[in-house]
Amino acid sequence: MILSIGTLVLVGFFFFDLHAAREYYEEITPEEENFFLWWVKQNVLKIGVAIGIYCLIFVALVGDVAFLRRVLTLNLTISGVSILVLTLCLVVFFAYDVKSARAYYENSLLLLSGDESFFRWWARLNVAKIGVATGVYLLGIILLVLPDTSLKIHPFVTPVMYLNLHRLSIPFYLTLVVVGFIAYDLRVAWNYYRNILLGMTLGAWPFLTWWAGQNRRKACVVIGVYLLAITGALSLKPQLGRDAPVKKVAGVATSRKSASSAKTGTYLARAEQYLTEQKFKEAVIEFRNAIQKDSRNVEAHLGLARSLVTLGAMNDAMKFYRNVVKLAPGSYAAYVEMAQLTMAAGNVELSLKYAQTAANLNPTAADPHLIQAQLYSRTGKTALAIQQCTAVFAREPTNPIAGKMLVNFYLHEKAFTQAATYAEKLLKSAPYDPDMKIFQAQALEGLNRSDEALTILRQAASADPHSPDANLYLGDLYMRRRDATAARNSYEEALRRSPSNPRAMNNIASLIADSGGDLRRAYGLATRLHQAFPDNPAYADTLGWILFRMGKTEPSLALLRLAASRLPQIAVVRYHLGVALLQTGDRAAARRELETYLRLTTDFDGAVQVRSLLMNR
Question: pTM for the complete prediction?
């Protein structure tokens, strides 16, 4: 649309320039030189700048081949053509009126009556004309544009704004515009005829004959534009009020829309095929083509948003998700996916808003409530998170996601009885779920039923021979039961199942350093972890303690100090630093660290050992 207007401006610019140059050319009458060649030579710079600006705008607006093809084939919508024609009518109307008034102004005695400029004089005399013409123009724009928008208008206001029009009444208003134009032009011409051409015979017929002779070109242009506008109006698809006949013309419009819909469907089918083949960039292109063909197609906007998410273009994806909810405010899927996207970006407030909207659209769906539960958990509102999961679990007692989240939240709150109860309920519908067995074991351990927890964890480890999770929790439970050998065996099994598992590597290295074993292997595991996660203080503490055990006290201190500064409330970390400082002879600093360890620890045997160490030093 913008490009079409730009083309019209360029053509108009050259047309008026040629018209002015023609008059000058006829006055100077150069010998044996074609007018057009003479004009080009005189205006090379002007032509170059104008065409350059036009091409720049063209390149900026043409985003792809499909749009370029539509521009080159002038494949504009009927509403767009009608608006162009209406604008052209207004411009031509004012251009000819100003030209006629200019001649009257320059030849009449009014020029000598004051210092008033021509345009102020013209505007003052034609206030009514300007108002009527502009009003009719704006009314035409409303009639052509408003039916294609998604604006919601009160049912009583709509027929008032449309003047209860149907398709065949639009030519009536176009006719009214032309009649008004001719009437005002006749009025101006009559004043000019009466005041300037006093030597001619006054009378209606002589005046009309004179006026027609003076305005042949204007009359041809106006009539041509009028006929073109009438044709465009009659070709409009029926949209306003009651429909009129002319079913053949309406059928043509319908067939064009059907062709456009078919093309959109083709683009969407290709996009879905690319998604199946995981060619997401190609899918994005096809979805964009579909949107250019039908900018209000919800499926295309939603598909494009999902494809952009897959490609990691989250900000662009959000733009198209917003388009979806503008076009289809009841799109439940869009609100859920927007909530997930904003939650991943860390925008808790906006994610809660989208999730609540999705819950309002579909109160029985689980996803909005589970998203809200995760968000409440992140902000420390565990009670609200439990409330959301409980609501889902009441409707869907076998929902594994809701059940696991609910048990996990109860474990976080140390509500072990409730956690064990819900875990048992879920295991009735999924008795071999290893994750739920781990949750059940944690709840039973919290209830001081560690023997039962051990049995359940062994069952979970056997049920899923590829997952290291059950063995990791089994190793932790053995460590709390002070069975280092069994704990190490569990961690070794977890590492066998998952050779790069950081938790298994760190725990094995720590056990070797504390209980004896191959320190070189422990050093290798801890070094790999520290290189992979240099900002993790727990891994720095493990590597520092292993270096100390290998007799490299000075290199170990930097790592142990880093760990203690990041994990000041972890007793074993303060113990490691205190022992290393004691070895260097810094007794004051070592005493501070070891006394801090005594305040933090719950390990009775370790506390007795440290007190003995402090007394001996």
Answer: 0.53
